[in-house]
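Priority: low. Protein: Zinc finger PHD-type domain-containing protein. Input follows.
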Amino acid sequence: MARRKATAEELRRLNKAREFKRKRNMLKAAGAGPDKGEDVCAICDDGGDLTCCEGCCQRAFHLDNKHNCIKTLGLTIEEAKNIIEKEDFVCKNCQYKQHQCFVCGSLGSSDDTSSQPEVFQCEHDDCARFYHPKCVAQMLYPDNHHSQELFELQVAAGERFSCPMHECIVCMEVENKNDKSMQFAVCRRCPTVYHRKCLPSDILFKPKKGPKGAMRRAWKNMLPGRILIFCMKHEIVRKLQTPARNHIIFPEANVLKTFQAAPMEQDMPEQKEAPDHSLPVQIHSPPPPAASDQNQCCCSSPFDSFAPSSLFMHPHPGSCGWLDD
Ligand SMILES: [Zn+2]
Ligand SMILES: [Zn+2]
Ligand SMILES: [Zn+2]
Ligand SMILES: [Zn+2]
Ligand SMILES: [Zn+2]
Ligand SMILES: [Zn+2]
Ligand SMILES: [Zn+2]
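Result:
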C-alpha cells in the first residue's frame, strides 16, 4: 500500500512524541527516570508490597496474603510465596503473549513473531499499554476518519506509535512533572489523561457527604509526580472505592470474577478476605467503548485537519479506497 504524505496533525503529534522522548531521556540520564514497573497493583489499584512482572507488561501485583489479588491471579498462598522468593514472576498475559487492549479490554495476541499479532504496545517504554490498531486510532483521531484509517494501518504494520496516555485530552499538551499544574492525572482503567489544571471538577479528591454522595475519583499520593484517577467513564463501586475489579483478563480463563457472590470452584485453602472485599459485590460489565462510527464510513463529514483538502480526495465519492492507490 502506498504511503500518503503525513498530515499537519500527524506531523505535530510526531514532533511532540519526539520532544517527549528527548525530555524523558534527559531525565533518565539525570537519574530521575521512572523505575521499572508500576507503583500500584494492576488488580486492586492499591500500593504496598508489590511484585513486578518480569515480562513486558510492567505491571505490578500483590502476591502477599494481605490482599485478595493472588486469587485473581489463580495462585495459592504457597505458590505466591515461592514466586516472591524466586523473584521470577511472569504474569500469564506475558507468558502466553496475550494482552488486553487498554481501550476495549479484550485479549489479543501480542506475539510479534507470529504472522498475525492483534495488539501492539505503545512505544514509550514506561507506558507499556497494548492496543488494537483500530481502538487506538479511534481514540487519537475521533473526528478524522482518514487520519484514523492511516494510523490504524501504520500500527497494524508494526510501526512505533505513541498512545493517548501522553497528552492531555483537554489541551493536547504534554506532561511536566516539575510544574504542578501541568502534572498528569491518569485514569487507571482507560487511556484518559488530564493535566491537573485541566481536570474536570466532577473528578473529586474528596467524596461528597451522604449515602448517595459522589464518590472520590482522584488520589494525590499513589503515583510519583502524578495523580491517580478513575475517569467518569467508570462507575465507582461503593464498597471497593474503585470501579469493579473485573478488568483484568488472563489468557486461560475469561474474566475471573473474584468478587462474585458465588463460591469459587477451585481447590484453594480457606482464607480470610481483606475487610473491603468481604461483602459480595455486584459485578458491572465494563462500559462500552466510546461511541464511534466503527462500521460506518463518515467520509461525508467535515474534516477538522489543517492539511489541504487535496490530501483527502477520494477516488470515488464516499469510498474508502484512497489508501490503496
Ligand atoms: Zn492488589
Ligand atoms: Zn506481565
Ligand atoms: Zn481494542
Ligand atoms: Zn503509551
Ligand atoms: Zn491539559
Ligand atoms: Zn477512564
Ligand atoms: Zn472513508
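The first helix runs from residue 8 to 29. The pocket of zinc ion (ligand 1) is lined by residues 41, 43-44, 46, 62, 67, 69 (CB under 6 Å).
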